[in-house]
Design brief:
This protein is mainly α. Among the domains are: about 110 residues, Arc Repressor Mutant, subunit A (Orthogonal Bundle), CATH 1.10.10; about 120 residues, no CATH class. Helix content is about 50%, strand content about 5%. The chain has 16 helices and 5 strands. The chain has a 3-stranded antiparallel beta sheet with strand order 1-3-2. A hairpin with a 6-residue loop joins strand 2 and strand 3. The N and C termini lie far apart (about 65 Å). About 15% of the residues have low confidence.
Length: about 375
């Protein structure tokens, strides 16, 4: 394979300035990986092995997925399929403008379908939106409360240099109708996000996008298509009742929507009785916690908040993570809002460790 050309104008690229440094590095490595027509095998496992042979234990498939989504979102790479639709290929849209295209045999087929790019477009979160979410959430994981960005690092610097240390999570997954809007995004640490995030294979991505395209092209088919759902997150002014109904349809396919709405009403009533400030954001967060943890666990958590006089989402999340008993053991609820959240986390972990050590001693005896 001939040497590739990297022009000095790449340092001034507006598109690359919008992605992380890791995505920039991946882009340059992909240039060396592509054939003479700017095409390459898009299998992430092959990309990882070919481009990061000495960092396989450091760089993960999830890192590649996030960087690839960034590059597709800013238009630096694209994906396509060819007939028969069995393999996924990548390409550089402006390859001929920057590289010499030799008259050689093509290693990969010509594109026949590019709808697979919709998968990445719908998951792309712009630099401006990331900055908005980081600022709104105070650089703190919305599940466990751990600070994901060290003190002293600005939002812009974190977005550019700290890829992988924080994740922007879709509350309602994209494949269930969620969109990249402020209402549907939240900041999570990698541990919390990867615990609930599902990795999709190439075959699943192609199958999903093909089904989605079929639904969009056929109104009659769209009415019966279970994979494509309406967007459940619309705007800041959305009525909470409509949000609740849409979310229930999104993440509970096989359950009667009326039953889900009834559960939502029980959660809202319990939270209001416990003293929660029932703003739109609090209601939306309660619905998300219900989706993750289930009705009984959320109601038990709200009851614990009421018993300790700590009617706030931060304490409720602590209860749901460690169970009410563990949270009650070491958290002084009366002073909870005035204390540093990490201190509370440390106390809960300390209580857990003490119980583990106690059980080990009992087993030895």
């Amino acid at each position: 394979m001939p040497n590739r050309i990297l022009k000095d104008s790449i340092c001034e690229s507006r598109a690359l300035s919008e992605v992380s440094f890791f995505a920039e590095d991946l882009y340059k490595r992909l240039i060396t990986y592509a054939d003479d027509y700017g095409r390459f095998n898009a299998d992430p496992q092959i990309i990882l092995a070919r481009l990061y042979p000495r960092e396989i234990g450091i760089v993960s498939i999830d890192d590649l997925d996030e960087a690839i989504t960034e590059l597709v979102g800013v238009g630096k790479i694209a994906f396509y399929t060819a007939q028969p639709r069995k393999e996924l290929y990548g390409c550089f849209p402006n390859w001929a403008s920057h590289q010499r295209v030799r008259d050689s045999k093509k290693k990969f087929p010509d594109p026949t379908d590019t709808t697979v790019n919709d998968w990445y477009y719908k998951r792309f979160i712009s630099k401006a939106m990331k900055a908005q979410i980081l600022t709104r959430d105070g650089m703190v994981c919305q599940e466990c409360g751990v600070r994901v960005i060290p003190e002293g690092i600005s939002v812009e610097r974190a977005i550019k240099m700290c890829a992988g240390t924080f994740h922007i999570d879709h509350i309602v997954p994209v494949n269930q109708g969620g969109r990249c809007t402020e209402e549907n995004l939240r900041l999570l640490c990698p541990t919390c996000n990867l615990r609930r995030k599902r990795h999709f294979t190439i075959e699943e991505i192609m199958e999903f996008t093909q089904a989605e395209a079929s639904c969009e092209n056929s109104p009659q088919l769209a009415a019966n298509c279970g994979n494509v759902r309406p967007n459940p997150i619309q705007s800041n002014t959305i009525r909470i009742q409509s949000l609740s109904e849409s979310l229930s349809e999104s993440y509970m396919d096989d359950v009667d929507a009326k039953a889900i709405q009834h559960d939502h009403d029980r959660v809202m009533t319990a939270a209001e009785d416990a003293g929660f400030k029932m703003t739109n954001d609090v209601r939306a967060s309660l619905i998300a916690l219900y989706a993750d943890s289930g009705l009984e666990k959320v109601l038990e958590g709200i009851k614990s908040c009421s018993e300790h006089g700590a009617a706030n989402l931060a304490y409720l999340r602590a209860v749901l993570r460690g169970s009410p008993k563990k949270a009650k053991a070491k958290v002084n609820a009366q002073g909870y809002e005035q204390r540093d959240y990490q201190d509370v986390q440390d106390e809960i972990e300390k209580a857990q460790n003490e119980r583990i050590l106690s059980r080990l001693k009992e087993m030895e005896e």
